[in-house]
User: Fold this.
Amino acid sequence: MRNIDGDDRGKALRGRRGSKVSRRLAAAALACALLAGVALSFAGCSVNPVVVTAQGSLAGTSEGAGVVAFRGIPYAKPPVGALRFKPPRLAMPWSGIRDATRFGPVEPQPPDDYESASQCPQSEDCLTLNVWTPSVKTGGRPVMVWIHGGGWMYGSSRDEWYDGAALANRGDVVVVSINYRLGVFGFLYLGKVAGEQYAQSGNLGLLDQVAALKWVKQNIAAFGGDPGNVTIFGESAGSMSVSTLMTVPAARGLFHRVIAESGALNTIRTTRYADKVTRRFMDELGATGIEDLTSYTTDQLTKAECALTSLNVETDTLFGPVVDGSVLPEPPLRAIEKGAARDIELMTGTNLDEIRYWSLYIPGLVALPVKVVLPLAPTLQAAMGDRVDSIVGSYRSRRIGVREGSISMAIATDVMFRIPQIRFAEAQSKQNPRTWMYLFKWPSESNYELRSCHAIEIPFVFGNLHAPLVDEILSPSPPVKLSEMMQDTWIAFAKTGNPANGSIPRWPAYDGKTRATMVLDVRPAVENDPYRADRLVWENIPFDGVNPPVGGNAK
Assistant:
């Protein structure tokens, strides 16, 4: 549900916040250009740290706080030409020392007012990753691999909120961030349109992530990391990605722990639904077959994707992982229930007011009653079915005196995020007792409408409290101690599989009886089964991508 209402929301947003956002995006574009220029001045410099990988030597940069950074490292061949819509291939070796001081191009994507990456240079040659490490001279550090969010259509590893320097330095860990193909380039299912040769095309973004993890396993020791202690973590579509990877046969053994922030296993597509989206996209593009799809330019494909999303109310349902019988043999939640990831330790959770993030795109969203919100979110409509009045009445009975908009925001947050995350934790905790649940509750101090919205925890996790847009979305002065506590918690879990550390109270593992949940705020505390009555409203819905169906009953 990233861009719920296409061009209209863009006009509304620009009318409301346009000048401030435009200034920030202009600054972001300038930063992209400056970074490329500054990086070139380092190339070939003898004092730059150098590592040797299986593909060749890399020169990075020594940064502040005792961290060494390597950026724009190719982990796969450019997926262009004959490789468009095909699984990733191993990156080719190079001779000499490759400059690794600047980020690679951003994955092709439509423009977005709150995605600075969409203002940076884009290319289908985007399969690169970045590494931050305290030292390349000593090894054995835990590795934390970040997979960015953005509805499988937006974002990039170069976003300033994801800079890994502070986290690597604080925890003495190696931090990796990756790019992967997005939108039509990474998740356009062509199995029925183009045949067996393209059977995996609906999951290319996932296969890119697998290829990056294979690179990590092969090369991370050269950067001071331990390939035997790898945690993958992500937010939103990144969280859905790391959760899904737990069940991908090709990813077995490539990681050992998962941190899933605000995204579970409820947005998986069937081949039938994915094929409908493909045919709608081809109609928009004017394509009749695979020959057309492989011959159009990047810009033509991106423009057609943008036009398609402007017509769709729930754009996050258009592209994303597909149960294709190959990359994903079955809906991932069902695989989790059968023990597909019983050897993987999990920490997962959501933010209290996830859906309020989309008020940045739809002015007045937080005041809309449920019956007005329903047409904007077919998946929500499918989950509520014919129980709309009873569900609204149930939520209202526990929220005396609040406005209708607050009730609709609570219900939408539960359907799209919190309850699916609970189902995920329930299933995994039965297979592996080292499962932990959190609920992030710190509210925005800059924008009351946002409260504890989607993505607000990310700068705290990375320790990037001065990154662009933090002051507008979080606060001009976010609580540093909360950030330090969250970094220590994420780091502790990555090191040991248990989030316990000196910054938080005792945190019991999650199970279906006590449902112990760490409430993350300036004063963290454990609550058993928070918002229990709300949870029980949805007790008989699995939220597995099949029930309720992704996209509702969209044609």
Observations:
- Residues 6-537 form a domain with the Rossmann fold fold (CATH 3.40.50.1820).
- The chain is about 35% helix and 15% strand.
- The chain has one domain: 6-537.
